[in-house]
Amino acid sequence: IVHVDLDCFYAQVEMIRNPELRDKPLGVQQKYIVVTCNYEARKLGIKKMMSVKDAKEKCPQLILVNGEDLTPYREMSYKVTELLGEFCPLVERLGFDENFVDITEIVEKRLNQLQQSGCSRVCVSGHVYNHQAINLLDTTHVRLVIGSQIAEEFREAIYARLGLTGCAGVASNKLLSKLVSGTFKPNQQTILLPESCQDLIRSLDHIQKVPGIGYKTTKRLETLGVRNVCDLQAFPSAVLEKELGVSIAQRIQKLSYGEDDSPVTPSGPPQSFSDEDSFKKCSSEVEVKEKIEELLPNLLDRIYKDGRQPHTVRLTIRQFSSTNKWFNRESRQCPIPPHLIQKFGKETSSVLSPMVDILMKLFRKMIDVDQPFHLTLVSVCFSNLKDLPSSKKGSIGFYLKQVSPPSGSAKREVEGVSQGEGSAS
DNA sequence: TGGGGTTAT
DNA sequence: ATAACCC
């Protein structure tokens, strides 16, 4: 498995949009937070998720661009996933800036070519975790070395075609590939040989750094006295199962050993489209309606371009509360009436006002508008996306549904051409 | 802490 | 519908 992780993705996209920002310290701002920044800014002490106030104190020359509209990042993100999809169908997205690629089949093909040509000279591309020596008589090592060459080709293609740099990690599963990709940081790549697996996983100083063990599970583990990966490895399974449930207990304990049998699941098109806005205060029905009317046109446009029809709509809000400041969200969802669904394929304007009405009804299910309220976030989400009833030859659906044939060059580059595999065209 | 996403229960 | 996870 290869894990591809773009460097400070939003900042890179902004530097492509405006090349003058290239060699200057740059931060991407959402509300009063610098969500990410380029490496020029990091040299000067700027960190991800730093407040704008702290960032400007640290670095008055810092240039800030607003990154609240994710459109440019989302578009570039899918270009990266689609590019990787030219090499191999098994590409799974994680957020906007990471992808897993299962290259097992490509590696097998190259290994066979190598063995048939009697060639025993294979050279690793990039780093080997722990500087572990490679044994070319070990086919597992050879496979990972071939993986390193493919990862290099991925990164080169992403740079040549999209102008983006990033890291890659190659290992036997998703967990380990992700952990190893971060070991040499901007614009480098690393492979993990199985003999160094325990060193990598045990190098994590806190269990929350294990992908899959989040905030809540970490808190519960801490009450059990489990603080690091070694503690979790050694903890009695039976006790863990009673505390967290069999499913979570078995999964995270396997993770603590670096074991992860989850497959690379092709992400395909998105399962949902959402748009949200946060703010200091929103306390009247009229304001809520205005927020919804701000969010909807953008969303309807995205759905229109996607070509599928959503069958469910959801409204999410966050109410102000001084205690438990984060994560007090509530939502209400409902099916979209069939007569409205039909209109999604056409002009978005005819959907707008009936949809606002539906969303305001959902709002009133959550909030008694006769009582005072104080919202700090409104979000609208369309989900349960279904393909249009694709009909005959002339319809839009017919053309949209046609799978575009692989452009070919990248795929042949990676798989090599030998006995009559190349197509006539 | 923002503005997104996913899956499991 | 919520809760957990990911970025």
Largest sheet: 6 strands, mixed
Give the averaged pLDDT, no decimals: 92
Strands of the widest sheet, in order across it, are 6-7-1-9-10-8
Which term fits the overall shape?
Answer: globular
Task: Catalogue the unreliable spans.
Answer: 392-425
- Into which percent range does the helicity of residues fall? 40-55%
What percent of residues are in strands?
A: 15-25%
What report would you give on this structure?
There is one protein chain. By secondary structure, the protein is of the alpha+beta class. The protein has helices at residues 9-17, 39-43, 52-58, 71-87, 104-116, 139-162, 174-181, 197-202, 215-223, 229-234, 237-244, 246-256, 285-306, 338-343, 349-366, 396-401, 409-415; strands at residues 2-6, 26-30, 33-37, 50-51, 63-66, 91-94, 98-101, 127-128, 166-170, 189-191, 272-282, 309-319, 329-335, 375-386. The chain contains 17 helices and 14 strands. The strands form three sheets. It has a six-stranded mixed sheet with strand order 6-7-1-9-10-8. A four-stranded mixed sheet has the order 4-3-2-5. Strand 9, helix 7 (174-181) and strand 10 (189-191) form a beta-alpha-beta unit. Helix 4 packs across helix 6 (139-162), helix 5 (104-116) crosses helix 6 and helix 11 packs across helix 12 (246-256). The chain is globular. The model is unreliable at 392-425 (pLDDT under 50). The chain binds a DNA duplex (9 and 7 nucleotides) through residues 9, 29-33, 35, 49, 51, 67-70, 73-74, 93-98, 211-217, 247-248, 267, 270-272, 274-278, 314, 325-327, 329-333, 377, 379.
